[in-house]
Amino acid sequence: MDEKLKQAALAFHQFPVPGKVSVTPTKSLATQQDLALAYSPGVAAPCMEIHANPADAYKYTAKGNLVAVISNGTAVLGLGNIGAQASKPVMEGKGVLFKKFAGIDVFDIEINEQDPDKLVDIIAALEPTFGGINLEDIKAPECFYIEQKLKERCHIPVFHDDQHGTAIITAAAAINGLRVVGKKLEDVSLVVSGAGAAAIACTNLLVSLGLKRENVTLCDSKGVIYQTREDRERMDATKVHYAIADNGQRTLADAVAGKDIFLGLSGADLLSPEMLKTMADKPLVFAMANPNPEIKPPVAKEARADVVIGTGRSDYPNQINNVLCFPFLFRGALDCGASEINEAMKKAAVYA
Fold this sequence. Notes:
Helix content: 25-40%
Strand content: 5-15%
CATH topology of the largest domain: Rossmann fold
Number of domains: 2
CATH superfamily of the largest domain: NAD(P)-binding Rossmann-like Domain
CATH architecture of the largest domain: 3-Layer(aba) Sandwich
Oligomer: single chain
Number of strands: 10
CATH class of the largest domain: Alpha Beta
Largest sheet: 6 strands, mixed
Strand order of the largest sheet: 7-6-5-8-9-10
């Protein structure tokens, strides 16, 4: 981040008041009668109605339009494990996007806990307050376990946006991009740079939509993930699932050659112009590392004119960003009273 942008961002967050969110009453509080209805003694009436029929919480409180954005700060953007408190600006930012694009109110909740089971207990205990839970910036592989356990325990939608929001918009971009270049999902090959939560979720969704699993090569920080790699026994199951037979490929450069799609959810400048030139005709490049992509669009276009490239950044063309998905997915889930966001809903969002 250059100094000018840094100072502008700091000023934006500090003035005229610190932070980006506040609580605004939805009822008049102008008279003594208003106060008597808003709090004691009038507030006892909806309390007793909800006690008798818990579903009435959606009738008498903000629960039906209130989402928790929750993080423990262990995998924040491209910043890593910066802790719960330092993640708060991101969670506030997520909240204002929910409000801006879908009219959904948000409480951001930063939890100073890294033990997965304790974190699950804390979040599950918050269920009475919210109509939905958006998990954010929780590191892999713990995030898979945490989301699954919460989905089992909670009766409201639980959605890890880093996984599924990214997967939905990536799948939509792939389908539309392949249409532009005249290819079909079932015929193409994919190389993935990165093997974290978002990368695995993107790959899973693309495979469920028709991409052949045997046409997928997954790479982590040590290179190609293959079945006989010496650290295979220490890999988590999500990586092992996509381990390929040993074909001699070891590096990302090896894996990129001949591929139709590059999906980057890793780090800055990992896809060189020389590597890009080895890809198939009319390649799709989704360089989504945040804040700096695996290859910048001007560099990619200079390397080859036929590339179709998208990034996660708003200052480049073809932005692939979760904000195209998560506000509207939650809006639909809240409006229909869904108890979960399931695979059918995710696939419908891809084609929306």
